[in-house]
Design brief:
270 residues, seven-stranded mixed β-sheet, 5 helices, 12 strands, Lipoprotein, signal
């Protein structure tokens, strides 16, 4: 019985070691500021969809799973992040006739030759319009698997943040909020939960161009990161002032008193 208990404890520890939660999402002042311009319209969010499997679970180095610390997987993480940005911008209302939902088509992770997150998503409006964005985030990885997966979990929220930045800053984003020419059902929501019923939308993607690549570099423990300092050298004008220097002539020292003859003469006189 004791051996069985020890085995269960060890199995639980091994399982927990294979799970790596991503960091909690932090709001972006730029996104909040941009969305606040639409606070008069209000936006509702439907359940995000994904063609990459439930939750978008990603394996790191074949043994560690990068997952969402909250409800759902990495796709739900993007949805919750977008809702939190809208709430901070005072632009969110679950009862709004303007309904947006996301369709995530890629969440991929690489930590072998170089750290990289890639996320592709289409943001769809119930007025029939949509825009798409792709985020490719590079980060510094590690040869040690545990350390590499740790950094991967720490940097996922940066990739999500950059993705949302591209979407809300798109010149076509305001077109998603225009009234639709046909009636659309609203998503059923209960608090933060969704019934899964999606509004009837038509996919007409408008790609965002250019697709930028972001870079995140996290210094390793004990690593000193050099600061890049740009200096501008200003010409300095120096005026030389002539200085008069008076040199006193050296006093000539007579060595006649030090001659050997004089010393002998003095001795004889004594």
């Amino acid at each position: 019985m004791m051996k069985r208990g020890i085995f269960i404890v060890l199995a639980a520890l091994a399982l927990s070691a294979c799970m790596r939660n991503v960091d909690s999402y932090n709001s972006d002042p730029y996104i909040v500021s941009t969305l606040s311009t639409y606070s008069g319209q209000k936006i509702s969010i439907a359940e995000f969809e994904s063609s990459i499997g439930e939750g978008g679970v990603n394996q790191c180095r074949g043994y560690s799973i990068i997952t969402n610390p909250g409800e759902g997987g990495l796709v739900r993480y993007i949805q919750d992040a977008f809702v939190s940005e809208l709430e901070l911008a005072n632009a969110y209302s679950p009862d709004s006739p303007i309904v947006l939902k996301g369709n995530v088509t890629q969440i991929s992770l690489s930590t072998l030759t170089g750290g990289e997150w890639i996320i592709k998503m289409t943001l769809i409006s119930n007025n029939g319009r949509s825009i798409s964005a792709r985020e490719q985030l590079h980060f510094k990885t590690n040869i040690v698997g545990q350390s590499a997966c740790q950094v991967a979990g720490d940097t996922y929220f940066y990739a999500v943040q950059n993705l949302l930045r591209k979407l809300v800053s798109s010149p076509n984003f305001p077109r998603l909020l225009e009234p639709s020419s046909y009636p659309q059902p609203k998503p059923e929501t209960t608090g933060t939960q969704s019934s899964g019923k999606q509004p009837n939308v038509q996919l007409q993607a408008t790609e965002i161009s250019p697709l930028e690549t972001s870079t995140y570099s996290q210094p390793a423990a004990g690593e000193i990161v050099p600061l890049e300092v740009t200096t501008q050298t200003q010409p300095v004008s120096v005026q030389s002032t002539p200085v008069e220097v008076t040199v006193q002539p050296k006093k000539e020292i007579s060595t006649s008193d030090c001659s050997i003859e004089k010393q002998i003469q003095r001795q004889s006189e004594k």
